[in-house]
Amino acid sequence: MYPLIRNRRLRSNAAIRRLVSETIITPNDFLVPLFVVEGKGIKKEIPSMPGQYHLSLENLQKEVKELWKIGLCAVLLFAKVPDNLKDNKGTEALNPDGLMQRAVKAVKDACPEMLVMTDVALDPFSIYGHDGIVENGQVLNDESAEILAEMSVSHAQAGADFVAPSDMMDGRILTIREALEDEGYTNTGIMSYSAKYASAFYGPFRDALDSAPVDSKEIPKDKKTYQMDYANRFEAIRETQMDIDEGADIVMVKPGLCYLDIVREIKNEVDVPVAVYQVSGEYAMLKAAAEKGWLDHDAVMLEQLIAIKRAGANIIASYFAKDAVKLLG
Ligand code: PBG
């Protein structure tokens, strides 16, 4: 068809490029992960995640007000509990006056319209750093799912709009949905981490929450018996479809960049919103390279976020949310 058709005509200046551009990101696309800690006046930078902080409740309130002001409308909360409150069953996770429960209320008090999602998993509450109860070297499935359901009800009671189970136990979406229905929380949504891979990119997050699996002979040293093998693709579709059938309102692929093939495939298969989690390791990599002057921070950030959106993400959980929104003006 050349020379009649010349593809470069559609790229020849900024105006035509703007006109034919297929993908945009806006503040509406983002879910902002936040790390909450006990104490007063704490805003402490997480060393492996520059620009991300441990926030005590009043600083959490300040932060959500600022986020709301720049157009960000949804947060995903993670609680870092002190070691003395951890056990094998994550008992503290069910405390109606626990850190997560108070954090939900604090956000709603400071910024009532902010959408609040809560992380539902045992690892930050577990002495072993696993997403479920550990017994005889195994991470128990059904017993863990029951606790996750109680945890979800507790978060709903505190005022969470959505619960976000990040554990990968089988059947937990159904168990959680039934528990929420039984307790009258019919409007509380579930964003399921449905295709969550056993990834080394979670390292900085585990530093931040002090939640890495403990190194011991009796305890599984990684999460490979519940999180997915990154070599697999069909499994991601099965996991996602099952979560939808069990009652998930939103599904998720995690991590982001290395898994955009999975995102596209799932987007083509399902008709619920698809979230993508650009995880801590992805964030840390770019921050580190930019700090060294090896990559252009803003340009690479934008390229990554657009790529995630182009792959099919409806929602992007990202530590870059604030940077991106500021950059977009
Ligand atoms: C724990 C959880 C993890 C992340 C979100 N929830 C870590 C893990 O599974 O070990 C990772 C998020 C990130 O790396 O940014 N259930």
Short description, anyone?
By secondary structure, this protein is of the alpha/beta class.
Could you characterize the architecture of this molecule?
The protein is an alpha/beta fold and 329 residues long. It has a single domain (24-328), classed as TIM Barrel. Helix content is 38%, strand content 19%. It has an 8-stranded parallel β-barrel with strand order 1-4-5-8-9-10-11-12, surrounded by 8 helices. A two-stranded antiparallel sheet has the order 6-7. The mean pLDDT is 97. Bound molecules: ligand PBG. Ligand PBG binds at residues 119, 121, 123, 131, 166-167, 202, 205-206, 223, 279-280. It comes from Maribacter vaceletii. One of its GO terms (biological process) is protoporphyrinogen IX biosynthetic process.
Order of helices and strands: HEEEHEHEEEHEHEHHEHEHHEH
| Average pLDDT over all residues | 97
General shape: globular
Strand order of the largest sheet: 1-4-5-8-9-10-11-12
**What structural class is derived from the secondary structure elements?**
alpha/beta
The CATH architecture would be Alpha-Beta Barrel
The CATH superfamily name is: Aldolase class I
Distance between the termini: 41 Å
Count of helical stretches: 11
Q: Which molecules other than protein and nucleic acid are bound?
A: ligand PBG
CATH class category = Alpha Beta
Strand content: 15-25%
Radius of gyration (Å): 20 Å
CATH topology: TIM Barrel
Question: Which stretches of 5+ consecutive residues score pLDDT under 50?
Answer: none
- What fraction, in percent, of the residue positions are helical? 25-40%
Number of strands: 12
Q: How many domains make up the 3D coordinates?
A: 1
